[in-house]
Amino acid sequence: MYKRNILQTIFSDHFEYIQYVLRPGKNIMDNINRMIHCHDPSYGGAFFGCPHCGNLKFVPFSCKSRFCPSCGNMYNQKRAFRMSCKLVSCSHRHCVFTIPEEIRNFFLKNHSLLNCLFHSVREVILHMFFKLHKSENFTPRFICVLHTFGRDLKWNPHIHALIS
């Protein structure tokens, strides 16, 4: 038996409760199932052989889910690197845009509203730069990332913006 991480153990122990009581969507259940079996050798893997000594090593397949702590971390590192390659070499500012606690439930009940946050942040940034630099004709560049939970793991949709 392979050694599971703590999240795999928690989700595995409560899988039936999640599936039949909480009843999340198919996509969420697929990601949970993939994460539970990440690096499980019974789900397959690949053999690698050393061309010099002939030693073989079996490496179990990963789930490649962003929900998985190890695979998701790798996804985030690769994404951060790709984004950093696109940044212009200049000063940047990090801004966080959030919404009042009283209206967060609307976004929880209807996730399609989250896209509105990106449009709102875009409008705020463009308006701010227009007000500050009316005589100059330029458009700021920025990258926005949605976070749906705060540090306390409570539902708190907010946008992180990196602005040049």
Summary?
Residues 142-163 form the Transposase IS801/IS1294 domain. With 164 residues, the chain is of the alpha+beta class.
What does this structure look like?
Residues 142-163 form the Transposase IS801/IS1294 domain. It comes from Hungatella hominis. The chain has 164 residues and is an alpha+beta fold. It folds into two domains: 1-84, no CATH class; 87-163. Helices cover 43% and strands 20% of the residues. The strands form two sheets. It has a three-stranded antiparallel sheet. Strands 1-2 form a two-stranded antiparallel sheet. A hairpin with a 6-residue loop joins β1 and β2. The mean pLDDT is 88.
Keywords for this entry:
164 residues, three-stranded antiparallel beta sheet, two-stranded antiparallel ribbon
**Largest beta-sheet characterization:** 3 strands, antiparallel
Q: Give the structural class.
A: alpha+beta
For the record, the count of structural domains works out to 2
Overall spatial form:
flat
Please tell me how large the radius of gyration is.
22 Å
Q: Report how far apart the termini are.
A: 50 Å
Nearest-integer average pLDDT: 88
Catalogue the unreliable spans: none
Query: What percent of residues adopt helix (DSSP H or I)?
Result: 40-55%
Q: What is the count of DSSP helices, taking H or I runs of 4+ residues? A: 6
Percent in strands: 15-25%
User: What strand order characterises the main sheet?
Assistant: 3-5-4
SSE string:
HHHEEHEHHEE
E-strand count: 5
